[in-house]
Design goal:
Layout: H1 15-26, H2 34-39, H3 44-71, H4 79-87, H5 89-118, H6 131-149, H7 152-179, H8 183-188, H9 199-214, H10 219-222, H11 230-255, H12 261-266, H13 271-280, H14 282-316, H15 334-350, H16 357-386, H17 393-417, H18 419-429, H19 433-442, H20 450-471
Length: 477
């Protein structure tokens, strides 16, 4: 093993494979619940507006990742390096650890969701929280650990295959629904129905649904050290994002042409299964259930790879202990991978004793990921204002506008996530500052600058507030 071998050349992958990381990380469990979740809040009009706003907002973030990949090709692992370059070492650590914790929280949910889906056929798995379910999940967890450890290129190839395999059933769903599409039903679903709140409230509620769905847009950027050409990173980010947006929008809208909105909203999750069952019969639900398992496993693999990459780069830069910088002969960050897998294993055991752990885990996944997104957009904005580079005035104006919109949108999403989950995120990240401090001292470097002391003080105050609210029962998890 090695921490940062001299002359070491990372294994490389194609732009298509990088786009597969974007698709693989974004198309997970969320897409299969979109029909029911949207129908519960709004009709066709509100859904189109919500996807327009959410898609436009996340497109600005995708364009930020594309621009930064070309503008700063020296920076690897995306969200960590951008935060570090823009706002200092501690902000980089903050971003890296938050992103990693988000991936781990999401991966725990993926295993529970798979077991819950299979529980409809195998009752012993229950809702994913039984002893058998945890045992099966643990076996799968370490199987994926072995797969990823066997080689970055091999794992990337599997991820590309799985990305295709999980998108095809969704495309089949869309086409089958189009053949059975009923214009009269669709027309009846245009509005939110009698007694529905005003359109603004419908759109606001559905915007919150899109937060978790879009996490993963940075997939190609997180794995950027393996890109054959730096331009491939930006191209893969935009291509992957637009492909996924088309999938999400299609799944949501075609469902309104199959069943009345009230019936879609009442379907058991994954609601895609109930919609397709209404079209083709019972086998449709089985088909979607199988597709869901493949999709979630693919998303799990993508998140495992990306989380390990971010810790690796942070450790090599000296912001985390060197144990996380170790790679094996096949260029796999085994230290970071082992820590990630061990944490997911611990959280799977916690499932046996926690009733609402995964509602919290899902919301935490979103809040923890939004912090790195906000810092990335902020870095793009800072770069556009202070160092625009060799750009024409028109191009400079476009770059600045995109950065402003991306920063505003990610800031809004942090607000929409709720203060309680922002505080819980700080409660997770702040204690881990001891790892950052140990790494900095091991290199004989100053732990905090004056500005970083201020950031730490604010973050620590938030973490203390979260602990106090939990201890007094005000905040229940």
């Amino acid at each position: 093993m090695t921490s940062a071998p001299q002359g070491h050349r990372a294994t490389t992958v194609s732009a298509l494979t990088l786009a597969g990381f974007v698709v693989g990380s974004m198309v997970g469990a969320g897409v299969f619940s979109l029909p029911g979740r949207f129908a519960a809040e709004t009709g066709v009009t509100g859904a189109l507006i919500a996807w327009g706003i959410a898609g436009g907002g996340m497109l600005t973030l995708a364009l930020v990742f594309q621009h930064l990949a070309l503008r700063r090709p020296d920076l690897d692992a995306g969200v960590y390096s951008y935060a570090r370059a823009g706002f200092g070492h501690y902000a980089g650590f903050f971003s890296a650890f938050g992103y990693w914790a988000s991936a781990c929280a999401g991966n725990v949910f993926y295993w529970v969701f798979i077991m819950s889906t299979l529980g409809a056929v195998f009752p012993g798995l229950g809702a994913g929280d039984t002893l058998l379910a945890v045992a099966v999940s643990s076996a799968g967890l370490w199987l994926f650990y072995a797969l990823v450890r066997s080689g970055a290129r091999e794992a990337a190839a599997v991820n590309r295959i799985v990305s295709v395999a999980k998108v095809l059933p969704i495309v089949v769903f869309v086409f089958l629904c189009l053949f059975a599409f009923d214009p009269q039903v669709f027309a009846g679903n245009l509005t939110g129905g009698a007694g529905a709140p005003v359109l603004y409230e419908q759109v606001r509620a559905t915007l919150l649904v899109t937060v978790f769905a879009f996490i993963g847009v940075e997939g190609a950027s997180a794995y950027s050290r393996h890109a054959r050409r730096r331009s491939d990173v930006g191209r893969a980010t935009v291509l992957g994002f637009l492909s996924v947006l088309a999938i999400f929008l299609s799944v949501t809208i075609v469902s309104y042409g199959i069943l009345p909105r009230e019936e879609i909203a009442a379907l058991r999750q994954p609601s895609m299964a109930g919609v397709l069952e209404a079209v083709v019969g019972g086998w449709g639900a089985v088909f979607i259930g199988a597709a869901l398992v493949i999709a979630v496993l693919g998303a799990y693999l993508s998140w495992t790879l990306m989380a390990a990459e971010v810790l690796l780069v942070a450790a090599r830069a000296g912001d985390l202990p060197q144990v996380f910088a170790r790679t094996n002969a096949k260029d796999v960050p085994v230290g970071a991978l082992t820590l990630s897998t061990a944490l997911v294993q611990v959280l799977l055991v916690v499932v046996l004793f926690a009733a609402d752990a995964f509602d919290v885990a899902l919301n935490l996944t979103s809040a923890l990921a939004l912090i790195p997104y906000f810092l990335t957009a902020g870095f793009a904005l800072k770069l556009a204002l202070t160092d625009p580079g060799q750009q024409s005035p028109a191009r400079r104006a476009v770059t600045l506008a995109v950065a402003v919109l991306a920063t505003a949108y990610t800031g809004f999403l942090l607000y929409a996530a709720g203060a309680e989950y922002t505080l819980l995120s700080l409660l997770i990240i702040v204690p881990a500052t001891v790892l950052y401090a140990a790494a900095r001292r091991a290199r004989g470097e100053r732990v905090f600058t004056r500005g970083e002391w201020a950031l730490f003080a604010v973050a620590a105050a938030g973490a203390i507030a979260a602990a106090t609210l939990i201890a007094t029962g005000v905040l229940v998890i």
